[in-house]
Every structure is written in structure tokens, then in C-alpha cells.
Design brief:
Oligomer: single chain
Order of helices and strands: HHHEEEHEHEEHHEHEEE
Strand content: 25-35%
CATH class of the largest domain: Alpha Beta
Largest sheet: 6 strands, antiparallel
Number of strands: 10
Strand order of the largest sheet: 4-5-6-9-8-7
Length: 262
């Protein structure tokens, strides 16, 4: 098989809006799409990538981790990092071993907000959030996409849509509406940073669903397509529900991976 040197890679321009590891991950994805790293070949070594991009080992490892999480590469003992698929051939894969991985997920994808405002909770929503019917919570609706790599900061991305996200945020966090549109940081991390609240526990549930007509139209899939619904409830140290996210993903565009160590 043809071997490709890291020197053939082109380092993306540095921007203040985008972390360096995301820039390198996008450059590597571009290399995959362009045929620079064919399926079945090895990526350049970590040392070679560090030299090619002028980056630290930690930064390069994070970039390669994003490719691995997307199912594009996998590591083989004594063989290195092997190209497993091209960007347009694979679905988005989310790996989760800790709350920190939720932060990385938010950094490596883009949530394009369609609506941000306040809503009065229906009886069903109130029961889900352990709140009073009619209570006003911050609500946001967005389309989750693979990061497009434009480097232009928050805003529409070029990546394919792979999920619909509905966020309900406790009404105590006034002013969060404006912050949501200005950053790609995970919402829970934004709350911790700006409001001094620490998330102590995250409860997650995953169920199979049929994608309803409204979500199907936004995702460009047939209504009734199989999908995954992933809900996450974020609680602070007092047990208060701070954030609730409700996510719908088409089955053929999203893989959830969890590793449990004994």
C-alpha cells in the first residue's frame, strides 16, 4: 500500500475562534477526503504529525482522537493508526467515558440554534423536569452537525446534520440566552464557568425511536426512519436539575460508543 509522509499535509491557518486540535483534525479529514491517506494505510506517526503541524503531542493526540471517535481511524497494537473510512462514508460516533467527553463532543461538533427563548412548560415537560406546569424555562432548539472546519466561529457549519437537540435550562440562569449563540462550549460547562455552579451528576437514557415528521424534515431523512433518542439530565451538588437535553439521531448517521473498565 502507498505510504504517505506527514510532510505532505498542509497545516490549517491558526484562528482565535477554533482550538488548534480541531484545526489539525480538520486538516487530517481533508487529507482523507483528498486521498492523501487511503483506507487501510497508516496515518503518519505521532512524532511526524507533531513536526508537520508544529504542535504538541497532547494536541495531536486530541486531533487523532476526534478522527477515531468519528470512526475514521482506529489504532492497532504495533501497527499504528489505520485509516478505516473516509469522512463521507461514515456516521458520527460519540464515545463517552466521563463528563469531560461531553465537553469534547460539544467542541468537535456544531450546534446551529434554530430557536432560543423562554417557554412555559407543558404538563408533560414539567413532569420530565420535575417542575411546575406553566413555569418558564430557557429553551433552545438546534441542529447538531459534524464540524465543518470553517474556522469562522459559531454559525452555520458545512458538516452533515446528524441530530436534533432540544435544551431546557433552569430559569435561574438569566442572561444565558445571549451566551448560547456566542460560543460552541458545552452548555453545562458554560453554566459552570459563568454562574459558579458545579455539575455533580449526569443521568442519561437511550431509547430507540421513529424520527417524527418535523425532525425528519430538518435532518433530511424519511419520516418514521429509525433513530436514537438520548436524553441527559444535569444536576448540581444540591440535586437541582440545571439542564436537560433531548437529542434525536437518525440510526444511519450516529453511533454511540461507551467503554467500561473494570
Amino acid at each position: 500500500m502507498r505510504r504517505v509522509s506527514a510532510r505532505q499535509a498542509t497545516a490549517p491557518p491558526a484562528t482565535a475562534a477554533e482550538p488548534r486540535y480541531l484545526q489539525i483534525a480538520q486538516a487530517l479529514k481533508d487529507g482523507l477526503s483528498a486521498g492523501r491517506y487511503p483506507v487501510g494505510t497508516r496515518l503518519p506517526t505521532e512524532h511526524a504529525l507533531c513536526a508537520a503541524y508544529g504542535a504538541s503531542r497532547f494536541t495531536v493526540r486530541e486531533a487523532v482522537r476526534i478522527l477515531a471517535a468519528a470512526g475514521l481511524v482506529h489504532r492497532k497494537p504495533r501497527a499504528g493508526t489505520i485509516v478505516a473510512a473516509l469522512p463521507d462514508e461514515t456516521r458520527y460516533t460519540q464515545g463517552l467515558t466521563s463528563v469531560r467527553d461531553l465537553f469534547q463532543y460539544a467542541q468537535s461538533t456544531t450546534l446551529d440554534y434554530v430557536y432560543v427563548g423562554r417557554v412555559g412548560l407543558s404538563r408533560e415537560q414539567a413532569g420530565q423536569l420535575d417542575a411546575e406546569p406553566g413555569a418558564e424555562w430557557l429553551f433552545a432548539l438546534g441542529i447538531r452537525r459534524e464540524h465543518g472546519g470553517s474556522g469562522a466561529g459559531p454559525g452555520p457549519a458545512e458538516g452533515r446534520a446528524f441530530g436534533i437537540t432540544r435544551l431546557f435550562i433552569h430559569p435561574a440562569f438569566t442572561g444565558l440566552e445571549t451566551r448560547l449563540r456566542q460560543t460552541r462550549t458545552a452548555v453545562y460547562a458554560l453554566i459552570e464557568r459563568d454562574y459558579g455552579v458545579r455539575i455533580q451528576r449526569v443521568k442519561q437514557e437511550i431509547v430507540g425511536i421513529a424520527i417524527d415528521a418535523a425532525d425528519a424534515a430538518n435532518l433530511g431523512v424519511p419520516a418514521g426512519s429509525p433513530g436514537l433518542r438520548i436524553t441527559r439530565a444535569y444536576y448540581d451538588a444540591t440535586g437541582r436539575l440545571v439542564e436537560f437535553s433531548d437529542n434525536a439521531h437518525p440510526a444511519d448517521r450516529f453511533t454511540y460508543r461507551m467503554q467500561i473498565a473494570r
